[in-house]
């Protein structure tokens, strides 16, 4: 039927796009080699993006590629969630069938794809939207990778400027993660529509920094190219003056050239482009124009059956009416079952010609017919299209009802931004519908609550705060304390996410509103207890969590019981009671296994891995973290939970000094687009490796991204402490001791190191090492910091074997600390402790002991590639005159000869730098009196009477070069 209705070809000649086609072909060839490539193809409306992609697709198919295509749909401002991917998936199912497609995916994956296409059965019942959304992303990635294993794959998505938030997020995810699969992704968008606030702009900027992403802009046609296009359309060379006129009016945009020629307005008529487009339509028969106006109300693409239902025409009558539009190339046949305006601009121009009454009637008809038979539109699109049409028809009642339904559908599809937009529409229409609450079965406050949740999930934090506050104004604490409490908890979440003070105060307020034991109080206490623990108040956090646990057990909520056991385990870990933490995690894991709850199992395993690493059982921690990641893939929770288990794996590998492996794990996890908090933790882990290897540029980049240079807030003990530790290391590596001491002093007060045992021991050990590594004008200040660190040390307890090793460093028991690190299998901190022991031995004048420690530390540092530590060991060896090998001879510096001793050369170098005796003493770990003796000997040997003369003499005799 529709397949036989084909319009004339506008231009049989492919003009002016050879270079762009060549780039696409090269990108395809590169992807076939196993380097996935993404091409961002921009251009003005009508410039020929679709034509170029179509020509390239022909080439790719000739080369044996499988091509999947999808397009984004404009429906008011909300778009359609995942529309391009739904279209591509539908095409794949038509070509292969449901069963073969499902066979390409892990067990159960079809239930996730059912959210896009009902042919895959009933969607998963998972109500955790972020989790299910992440799983959907992973399954689409896996599907593309499996398809590409069979033959090269090309995925084209057109009109990305109309993409909904969910589609944009999925596009970005695939662009980062299709790394070695032979896949080429081509995305087209209208560059002239990307205003400053357009949501696609930051996405394009971000993708432009991703390896394997190319960005290409299609230019307008030149004068000669327009002439060639016109010749192809007209069947022969056009007159020169006609080319000039068309070129001037079209400005080289192919669609405008076509429109000018089709309308016959290629001479000097004073008509705008809009006039030309509508003029071409107006030349069609009246019945054809009437049907086109109906089709324009339906969108750029409208199904034959739907248009027939709306128009009231029989199939034959509709075909007769629309055939002239196809012949005139205003409408094209798509997939043999739908009509497509040749360009969205044409559809927009026709739609703009609707009279007010027509506009209302036609959109109402579309809404009514889709409601009557939802199979008239592709699966999953009915609710949002109905909402769009009732809103466009200005029918407030049905616009509200349909927007409410569509918001629910969007939530189930994890399209949070679309859900928020629809809920905002419900709120905007509320006052216009007197019985709105009865119509949708929910009160205004509930809509505000849902909107705040959607805002939180989509990152619209400022908007979300407004919704929560508006909801709170509608409720009374006296009459509905539980609802108020839950909203206040949400408000606290917004404060925390926005890094604003007050989250704890909100949680305490919520706790006071629900004094009676019950599910609501357990919920509030769970949030409060967790917040307290991560803010450093382990004692109260534990008490609150234990109360929540008693209530949860009383109401029989086993899932909450397991979560609370894990929260208690976190507190025990913070407090250094690691064996108890492992036991609590084990009990929670058992509950999760009994319930079949993958989230709980993975969470318990991850916390166990962290505790094992802190116990010094890092090899076991690596195994546990890898197992947790495998389980997260099985449950489709890799992005949500699995990437955090990758962090646990990387931290354990870093503890074992398997740094290259740790970096590989971190970089692979970062490439999977983790949530912001996990990303920052991964970056800090990368920073730890950078510290050990002396990668200052990497460390600076990490600290910038995690916001370490900004003023600390009252939130996030772990984050602040980790930032401080990395900042201290950075300034130490850059040779800025005073700045390092500033950070050390700040770290002793905010947050309190005693808030987490192991964190506190590690911080104090870093401060001790810092103060024993530098000498500056603030040496007295360093000594004061050591005294303060000693006072803090007295407040710390626990920490397990790792904490004990750090404690030995804090007590200046360096040989014992080195032995402890050796037992734990951690060579880098062992070598650091040996270096500190050598410094102490030099200070005590025990050269033989210093040499022994340095000789033990040096090969460890060298084998690890720990450049800063190696240099520090070698520097101390030179200053102490301590050879690092059996046959090594200490080289005090060329030119010294037999005139000065090695120690005197060291002292002379520091004298030449303008150092005082006190500074030199601290630098060389000797007394100031000994320095004075060395200086006197130097003056005597050089035959001079002052430090200045000694420096000049040293330079003249090349004693220091």
TrEMBL record:
Superkingdom of the source species: Bacteria
Molecular-function GO term, any one: DNA binding
PROSITE patterns linked to this entry: HTH_LUXR_1 (PS00622), HTH_LUXR_2 (PS50043)
UniProt keyword Nucleotide-binding present: yes
Keywords per UniProt: ATP-binding, Nucleotide-binding
Pfam families assigned: AAA_16 (PF13191), GerE (PF00196)
Gene3D superfamilies the record matches: P-loop containing nucleotide triphosphate hydrolases, Tetratricopeptide repeat domain, Winged helix-like DNA-binding domain superfamily/Winged helix DNA-binding domain
UniProt key word Nucleotide-binding: yes
Domain HTH luxR-type, chain residue ranges per copy: 893-958
Example of a GO biological process term: regulation of DNA-templated transcription
GO CC annotation terms, alphabetical: cytoplasm
PANTHER family on file: TESTICULAR SOLUBLE ADENYLYL CYCLASE (PTHR16305), TRANSCRIPTIONAL ACTIVATOR DOMAIN (PTHR16305:SF35)
Protein name as it appears in the record: LuxR family transcriptional regulator
